[in-house]
Design goal:
Structural class: alpha/beta
Strand order of the largest sheet: 3-1-2-5-4
Largest sheet: 5 strands, mixed
Distance between the termini: 9 Å
Helix content: 25-40%
Number of strands: 5
Radius of gyration: 13 Å
C-alpha cells in the first residue's frame, strides 16, 4: 500500500492515501512529502508498521529493535486523532 507521508519541521507527520488531493489543514507551514510503501491489510496493522518505521532510528540509538522500542512504550504512536505527532488520515481506506 502506497502512503503519502508529509514531514513537518516541528516533527509531526501526516499519512494520507497516495491519491489524496485534499489540502493539509492540521499543521501550519510547509512540509516535505514523499511516498512510502507499507504491506498492511488493515488499519491497525498499518498503524503498527508506521510506528515501527518512524521509531527505527530512536530504537537503534537505544540499542533496541524497532519492535522492542515500540513495545517499551517509549516510541511515538500513530493515531487517527487530530493533532497527533503521527496522524493517519481517514482518506486511507482498506
Amino acid at each position: 500500500m502506497k502512503i503519502k507521508v508529509t514531514d513537518y519541521s516541528n516533527g509531526t507527520h501526516e499519512f494520507h492515501a497516495a491519491n489524496c488531493n485534499h489540502k493539509k489543514t492540521i499543521h501550519s507551514g510547509n512540509g516535505d512529502s514523499f511516498f512510502k510503501e507499507f504491506d498492511a491489510s488493515n488499519k491497525k496493522e498499518l498503524m503498527h508498521q508506521i510506528d515501527l518505521w518512524f521509531n527505527q532510528d530512536f530504537a537503534h540509538s537505544n540499542g533496541m529493535t524497532p519492535e522492542e522500542y515500540v513495545a517499551s512504550g517509549d516510541g511515538y504512536k500513530c493515531s487517527t486523532e487530530s493533532g497527533s505527532d503521527l496522524h493517519l488520515f481517514p482518506c486511507v481506506k482498506f
